[in-house]
Amino acid sequence: FDPNSNSLADQQSGNEVVRLGSNESRILLMLAERPNEVLTRNELHEFVWREQGFEVDDSSLTQAISTLRKMLKDSTKSPEFVKTVPKRGYQLICTVERLSPLSSDSSSIEVEEPASDNNDASANEVETIVEPPLATSSDAIVEPEAPVVPEKAPVASAVNPWIPRVILFLALLLPICVLLFTNPAESQFRQIGEYQNVPVMTPVNHPQINNWLPSIEQCIERYVKHHAEDSLPVEVIATGGQNNQLILNYIHDSNHSYENVTLRIFA
């Protein structure tokens, strides 16, 4: 992964270069800089959009993560790269190695040897325990034996002591299993229009934005007019509409994902 050129090199396909969009590239960069660490959705929003001067809603991040997974050929149910951590965020679960092609000196790795001299010295140290001499037969005092009283066998407890421990263990294990084996549902979209053969989608539970359709149509027509036919978006996701603002996410196919862009319309 080269964040400078927003590209991926597929080592299993002869280093085939895959171009990423700017949003997907910044998401992958932040995940790679903090591998195996769960990054919250707010942290990703801050790094990818707010630092660039944009304010988008939550569906933009969901769509960008979905596109990144397609670029990585990653599965949602059995991820090898980007894992969704329910109610927390996302986590890069693969091994990350930083490459420095311009550096000719190989970095040295120091391996600490166990302190064998100290271990040998401590092993050779033997403590001498001086025991008091046993009393001789002439000094021994014979005491009369006390009568032996047979001990009563303890009454078996009516409740097995392992049952409460098993119940406690299962109570702790159940929420962990729910977090590990439950995947959040992917966002669902519905089509609200189609202009220049480009479908316009919006989240299923999103408020109605029918009064924005003329503005959406004008934006798509201008976008198509200034782009080549083979690089047209496959869909446009519209969100917002409140506070006289609407967000349009132009989504392209995998070969032109680097052209993905987010636009904001003001009424």
Biggest sheet strand line-up: 6-7-8-9-10
In the CATH scheme, the class of one domain would be: Mainly Alpha
Distance between the termini: 39 Å
| String of helices and strands | EEHEHHEEHHEEHEEE
State Rg: 34 Å
Strand content: 15-25%
Structural class by SSE content: alpha+beta
What best-fitting shape do the alpha-carbon axes yield?
Answer: globular
Overall pLDDT confidence: 77
Poorly predicted residue ranges: 102-142
Number of helices: 6
The appropriate CATH architecture of one domain is Orthogonal Bundle
Largest sheet: 5 strands, mixed
Q: State the share of residues found in helices, binned by percent.
A: 25-40%
CATH superfamily of one domain: Winged helix-like DNA-binding domain superfamily/Winged helix DNA-binding domain
InterPro entries: OmpR/PhoB-type_DNA-bd, Sig_transdc_resp-reg_C-effctor, WH-like_DNA-bd_sf
Pfam families: Trans_reg_C (PF00486)
Keywords: DNA-binding, Membrane, Transmembrane, Transmembrane helix
GO biological process, one term: phosphorelay signal transduction system
Note the main attributes of this structure.
267 residues, Arc Repressor Mutant, subunit A, 10 strands, 29% helix, globular
